[in-house]
């Protein structure tokens, strides 16, 4: 412990015992007056006074050592008070013991509330996970029915059904992202099949909006979680298609950096720093009333868990470029 800290503690210690010190001073003054009235020799007063002063000083220092040690113990508990609140030292006074019992009762109540919250969260997770899997059955049936005829109306309905399916997948990813049961399985995988799978998923959207896709196959291998990387790529492609009326979407791979660029409406400069915030829709979102502001937020959160860098560049009217830095050297494969 540093000297300044010890000195500060000693001042606190004296302040807590100031009443005792004042009483001792008052008693000493009373005895001095009485002894002077009886005209006792000065040595008869100074000798016991010195003994009392020495004894009091030693006792004060010993008590201060205990005071510092108890303070150190309490400081150590601050870092994990939720788990170790039961290790609070016994109170040396009735007031200290009362406060200790209050903290123990509060900690017990907190633990019970935390357990109840975790149970409700798990039940909610189980319910929505079941709901997502159940809702996919009627979606698949409707998709097969719509594929029976190739008309403009059926193609439009298929497009809307595709969006519903995307939103369903986003619900599941949103729930799993912060779940304790979510497992991240890191392997070194070829990047090209992951990109191609994401592109195939949106093939009908490219055709429907007459958007040209530019992509050159790559031999790059990356260390990541394949499922979550696919989710990130799909969200970025979904946004690119959504805000591109015509033109092209280009996917390029340089080293281990993947860039998805489009010729869409772009992002306002004042919105660019906030596009990864939850629920933020910005100018484009106000134009598109169906925008939720969740897709890019989920991308950012997933990238953080995979140690993937994500950034965006954009200019109004000239499109946007989203970059994924897959140089995850700090991760070791399982």
Task: Tell me about this structure.
α5 packs antiparallel against α6 (152-177), α7 (191-201) crosses α9 (226-242) and α9 runs antiparallel to α11. A hairpin with a 2-residue loop joins β4 and β5 (257-262). This protein is 62% helix and 12% strand. It is of the alpha+beta class and 334 residues long. The chain is elongated.
What features would you highlight for this structure?
five-stranded mixed sheet; 334 residues; alpha+beta
Strand order of the largest sheet: 2-4-5-7-6
Contiguous low-pLDDT stretches (5 residues minimum) are none
Number of helices: 11
Rg to the nearest angstrom?
35 Å
Order of helices and strands: HHHHHHEHHEEHEEHHEE
Largest sheet: 5 strands, mixed
State the end-to-end CA separation. 43 Å
- The tally of strands reads 7
Proportion of helical residues = 55-70%
Structural class, judged by helices and strands?
Answer: alpha+beta
Average pLDDT reading: 82
Estimate the strand proportion. 5-15%
Q: Name the shape in a single word.
A: elongated
